[in-house]
Each structure stands twice: as structure tokens, then as C-alpha cells.
Amino acid sequence: MAGHSKFKNIMHRKGRADSARSKLFSKLSREITVAAKGGLPDPAMNARLRLAVNNAKAESLPKDVIDRAIKKASGGDAEAYEEIRYEGFGPGGVGVIVEVLTDNRNRSASNVRSTFSKYGGNLGETGSVSFMWDRVGQIGYPSQAGSEDKVMEAAIEAGAEDVESDEDGHTIYTAFAELSDVAATLEAALGTAKSTSLAWRPKVRTPITGEAAGTLMKLLEILEDDDDVQNVYSNEDIDAAELESLIG
Prior knowledge:
By secondary structure, the chain is of the alpha+beta class. Helices cover 45% and strands 23% of the residues.
């Protein structure tokens, strides 16, 4: 699940991710089913399904669960999921993009809208926020994959556009249309990625501190926890020390 990665990385280090593991597995399974239903049920012949399966394996989703999710789509008894993107602003004018996979549009719209409202934000029209982002390919590697220089060199050789590295790992960005090719080249150089996905990358970030920053973190956390929500992206700029203290 790509998104406000620094926020999620800190939560993971503090052990919060364990409590959300069943929700993560459910979202990964749902993405596999939708991908399989939208094309051939063979990952080798379906790029979206291949990405979904690879991401599920990286998160240790059991093979039988993966196979069951694919067969569910093949059998024609899968729920009719709809893909919806919501855009809005959180506290302090921070832009937020929420990607949803749902079998009930009204439920999802109500939940997302009420969460924004409760935590000092408001929904906007489609396009009201996303123009401040680039649609990109995003490939994640753990820090053990190599040094910053090694990963940067491999990314350049693979044709990637940018790399961000920190203590939590490496995030490699590619052009939207080149994700599969770059990912395949990187796998040969660095091994299997932890995640490979299409994502939204902010062109600008919005500084936010204090009480507004704390409220924003709560907004993002509640959105992430919603069963229908697949991904949340936000463009906040929060000092690392303050972010650590906010997540507690």
C-alpha cells in the first residue's frame, strides 16, 4: 500500500503494523481478485495481476489465499467492485488522495466524507487535488537491498527517474508506462522488490506542525483503516522528530 510512506514506516517500526495485518491481507486479496476479473487469470498474461500477486507475496500472503482470490474471479462469483478516487484537503490545506475498491459506492462515499469532516478536512471534486501530483511507477526495496549508491546506480541503469533512500529503505520512481520494464531490470540487479505499484507522487509538499499535524495523522490513520480504502496519499511536510512524537 503506497502512500504517506514515512508515516507508515514509523508506525511499522513501532509495531502498529501487526494489528492491521489482517486488514492488509484482505486488501491484497481484493486487489488480486479485481485484477484477475479485469483480465486473464494468469499473472504471466496480466500485468496488473502480476503486480498484485508480487506485492501479496512480498507481504507474506499465503499461496493458498492468493490462489483462492484468483479462482474467485475466475468462477464468476466475485463481488462487483468499483474503483473510485476521492480527493480533498486535510487540516492545514494538505492535499489527500484516497483510492477505494468497493462493492457499495454509497457506503464508501459516506465513510470517506464523514472522516474528512470529523478530522478538519473536506472533500473536493475529482481533479481538485491530483493536479498537484504526478502519476508514477513506484518500486520499494528494504534497506538490506544495498547501499544508497548501489541502489541509485541500479536505478539509473534500469531507466528509473528518481530514488529516495532513508533508514527505512529505498523508493524508486519510474515513468508511468515504464514500471514493468524498470521493475524487471531492477529485480535482476537487486532481487525481488518489497512492493511495485502505480502511485501518486506530490509535486509540492505542504508544511504543517502542531495540533493541525496531529489531527492530520489521525485523519490518515482512520482512512487507512477503512476496509474499502486501498491507498491513501498525502503531501504533508512534517519534521521527522515531530512526526515520531505524533505517532507516539
